[in-house]
Amino acid sequence: MEENTNIMESETAANPKKTFWEGLKDFFGKDLVRYIVKRVFMFIPTLILISILVFFVIQLPPGDYVSAHIAKLATEGEYVDADYAREMREDYGLDLPVWQQYIKWVKDIIWTPTDSTYYRLYHSHHNWKFSFAYGRDVWSVIKDRLGLTIGVTAIIMLFQYLVSIPIAVYASTHQYSAGDYISAVFGFIGTAVPNFILAIILMYLSYKWTGNANVGLFSSEMLENGIHLYNFGEFLKRMIIPIIVIGTSGTCGIIRSVRAQMLDETARQYTLTARAKGVSERKIVMKYCFRAAMNPTVSGLGGVLSSLFSGSTVTAMVLNMQIQGPVLYKALQSQDMYLAGAIVMIQAILVVIGILLSDIALAFLDPRIRYSGGNR
Amino acid sequence: MKRPFKKVLTLIVALTMVVSCFAACGKQPTATNAPSGAPTSPANPTKAPDDSTPAPTEPLKDTFGESPELAKLVADGKLPKVEDRIPVKDDLFVERNDATGKALEIGAYGGIINLGPAGGSWGLSRPTLESIIRYNTDGTYYPNVIKSFEYNNDYTVWTFHLREGMKWSDGEDFNADDITFWYYCVHLTNFDGKKSWTALHDGDEDFAVLKKVDNYTVTWTFKNPKYPADFIENGDFKWCWAPEHYLADMIPNAGSYPAVENEYYKANTITDEQALANAKAKNIDSGTVKDLGKAISYNSWNVAGIPQLNSFVLSTQEGNNNKDADLCIMERNKYFWKVDAKGNQLPYVEALHFHKTSADGQDLLMFRSGEIDIVEIGMQDIASTLADLGSAAYLRTFASTSWGSNQITFNYTTTDSNYAKLFANKDFRQAMSICVDRKQVSELLTDGFLEAYQCAPSEGNFGFDAEWGAKWTNYDVAEAKKLFEACGLKMGSDGFYTFADGTPLMLTFLTYDGTQDTSYPVFEQYFKAAGINCAMKNLEVGAFDTQIDNNDWIAVMGPHTSIGGLSLKSRVAPFVPIAQAAEWYGEYGTYYQTNGEQGVKPEGDMAKLVELYEQWNSTPDTAKRDEIALKIYEIHKENLWSIAYLEAAGTYAVVNSVIKNYADNLVSDDLYQYANIVHYEVLYKAQ
Fold first, then answer.
1. Is B543 within 8 Å of A61 when comparing Cβ atoms?
2. B490 φ, ψ to 5°?
3. How many domains is chain A built from?
4. Taking CB atoms and an 8 Å limit, are A215 and B121 in contact across chains?
């Protein structure tokens, strides 16, 4: 049996067996550096195009922040005269042509000079401008929820992968078994039921059974005093619904795709050969099929960075989660273009970086994938 | 290969947990306690000419009560004793009755009142703001922050008397200097962006002259008579003070805001950038000086650290110190200047907590879970909520001052002559009114909660007239069709009326922000059944306003500025065509506002409204002004420029039963500052 395994392992017989670190060193060779540099240069036109799109799409709805703001004040019983509105537009630069607003926006994000008022006040060369709706520096609004958004989303993602991959492997190795059917049923339900509906149902059930709908990630006490050991249990309790809601939909997707990929791999020639040569089923599945089956999952990690930054907007709103998604929603709703622009722009940058990272990870995972044409 | 990936993930999660765990720290909530007040000698009621403050029933003693938390701070030497924090006994504000006149219970100290989201820029002020005067639900008012006021015989000199010993929330003295500072350095420079307030205008060009008589007395002098309606009763004129000791270095003189130099103030050399930097040093962020001005001298309750006279002040605790925070905290003003009938310093509760929510209905869910103590509730949720919660909650009703609900109105100044002629015909409006079965509408939209009604003052409000409320409310489609035909409309082959010249008649109802998404389909079926073809065009509110301002519309359902309201005293623009504000008078208002340069000159009854308004505005006598106001109402009754279908919906709040002193049968209106009429400083939590 051991002999046979070695035959399989000599699939790369031309290369002597390398340690993990040697492999890593080889991996980060010139090709990769060249590839990364090339991709980074490709970022520039991509990001310019994205930024133009972002800025102009945000400008599409009729009116602007000032008109939306004045209308809101009117609903509060406060009336703003035309002169004041005009002055506000001048101050915010909303009276300028859109292309000029765009150039100023991008220029200030890339580099705000040391002699500018912004630099003197905030000691930063990157001026993301002011959020009209929050009356604060855009970056400070984003920063407020960044840690929590990353933390919560990372926990949920970790849950998704830790739960879904073993289930997918089980389902593929026990095709048409009761366990496979059960995971399929839950998989389809999780994929088909919109997150926000599941969230509402779970909140209702939580209220019915416990008298508390568990709205929001934090209790009032936590919001005032912070999270400590004594209230950490309450925090975890409040994480149950978000994890189930956001986690299940993602989990179901991963289960279905990994299962399908695994089934595909287990029917391939190399698997049959390995099996014929007596390699243990466990080794076939875990060392060969699983590795190949992970490719689509890893390539899908491109969006992870962006998701970590924004969280799940609609579900976050329904569950009143204090993460970035609802901030973007509010910014879009109130035409707070600099805040909305910044969030969407950062998301776009993260998607681009995420795709690069996933490509690198993919190559690392699958030796058949190379960067230069010659090796491909 | 998987190890590094796992490690990174593990590291991210671990770091996030650690950061979250140590993100904040603070004090634990404390238990409620009974007040320790010990009253002594008589309080001096703050009398004004038409003061309605109820007479004191029991004299105050020489010592005063305070919350145990504050007493501890006093004992620790961290806070002056209560007698030194409140005005001198004769100048104290003794709060004995609620806004309906009912005597208040003596409360217990402690606890926190949890509320829903703070809302817009005025959200935090509603339960906390203390203004120059305060209204009762019957429209009477009394001096509030000021001790008293008086005016001379020709209404040219108004005198405000302040309360000796009154302090800002940071313990600094509040006196006449804070008023002169506000007027000359903040208001007349337009730093607060509110120089347009008419309350302090003196004719078209000039402004009142403010003089400090002594530390506790100021006078406002006008060349022209300044009648109460446009001064003390003017809804905009809520305050006239600012904390000089805190704001002075944030107000630029050398640029956008030249100082009004006089005996009180000389120009300084603070530039716009210095002002922004000085504000930043106090943790106040602003993108422009204009924003800074509005933030620190207008909606200043939203900025942590700025001293206030209000009952509660925004916490400076990081994470809880802005209205958009997930938990925004307004803490008890330790120097608050009101006491209860037993001499206990108000407010009773330690803090108001505003919980941010991100979707409709979450606040009600949190109320049911016990996380929120008071929540505004839609009428459709009242029965089920009270049934579920039983004695754990009670309902409070705020009467509406609106003139009916589900209003529609038409563009009387449209440039399309067919529509203009049609809308000018009262028969058309009558037909549009009677072609709808109000009873069924009520069933469909409000579960029968609201009665059929017209666009008229509600019962209990000034100008209420039952006949007016019932006018054109009988459901009669046949009669409506007769009226449409009497207007010259012709029935087309498709079952819809056309104009006499064969042009199709299409009523496109403009709406905003989806507010009519539920009700429009209900009305559509009636209008179409009566032969009026119609459609709805929903816009974002800014675009809606622009279209109205551009006179580019035919009809509106759910106007942004509805006709009517509490009274002309509250706000004139909804009653008479004098501003570019309300849909029902469209370009007629523009004509008045631009002195005839733009807009459409009002004629007939519209013109009469303007004439009567000018008479009303220049009449000091309250009874005569009411007489004129009723004439204005009579014209509205006659014309019904807007049609309403149901009575005005009130505002409802459900309140946790442990909250006491929450008055019932209140009135919700801008003049009363909506929830401000609850008087949150007297609410307390029962043991």
1. yes
2. -115, 140
3. 1
4. no
